[in-house]
Design brief:
Elements lengths: L6 H17 L7 E15 L4 E5 L7 E2 L4 E5 L2 H26 L3 H34 L4 H30 L3 H27 L1 E3 L4 E6 L6 E2 L4 E17 L1 H4 L7 E6 L5 E9 L4 E2 L7 H4 L2 E9 L11 E6 L12
Antiparallel strand pairs: 1-8, 1-13, 2-4, 2-7, 3-6, 4-5, 6-8, 8-12, 9-10, 9-13, 10-12, 11-12
Helix pairs in contact: 2-5, 3-4
Length: 333
Amino acid sequence: MSQHPKPATLCLILTVGALIGCAQPRESSRIHASGHVEATEVRIAAKIGGRLAELPLQEGASVHAGEVVARFETVDIDNDLARARGELAAAEARLALLAAGTRREDLDRVAAEVARLGADLAAARRDVERLDGLASRGTATEKARDDARTRMAVLDHALAAAQAEQAKAIAGPRPQEIAQARAQRDAAAALVATVEQRRADATVVAPRNGVITQRTAEPGEILAPGALLAVLTDLDQPWLTVYVDEPSLAQIHLGERVTVQADGHTDAFEGTVSYIAKVAEFTPKNVQTPEERAKLVFKVKLALDNREGVFKPGMPADAYFQGTGNKEKGSGR
């Protein structure tokens, strides 16, 4: 006959079983996502065109911000700069000449000419008066009197012209002439600044720290303005881009620490969730299976600490989220 356990024994077994079941920790549901490492790339190009004289850095070289990356020949630019500076000097001299007004020597010369013409006119008037008296008595011909009157009229017009010239010399240049000369000076100065900037642009410097990951030109080539010279990659601040589905997204938060595993490395690395997309998208086409590409997913970026230089752009890596769904969601999502 089979023996049934006594009620007290049965209660003890159930109690011990329940305690054992409660004591066993439940395995946390970690979220696994795969992606590729990315980094900021700066395409270094020249603002000017011309013959490339130097491109000293090779691929793989580390570069600091402000370090020279390339130099162009400046023979033509130097010639343009010399001509522009000459035009500026001429414009400044013209402006200074107008601002100084009429020279004292010119004023004295015009005054002397006015005095001479005034004296000649006075003498011509006396001749006309004398000939008028002689003609009335019949001792002077009509022709002599007419010639004297004509000479007096010519001298009168000449004196008026000289007096106008004297007034112009005393007044000096008109304000409009000075303003025109000043504008020409400013235009020449702007041209000099433009050519000097072209000369400065002939030396290309790195805009930030990084590593030369691509070299697209060689010294001796004649390049057009804007031609690509090299690609600078910032390997100090890479990130891992992964895609997660909507149920998993609810358990991921900005600032969350994530475990990252890179191919070929046994050590685990740490990443930080720095970006969570607000809009869903289809899985990128680089995912192999059509079934995965048909899913709607959200892009997540993980900032990586690359002080050891492990992560490179394009490197595949895996991210393991802790799946803490009970935490309050971050406001940046």
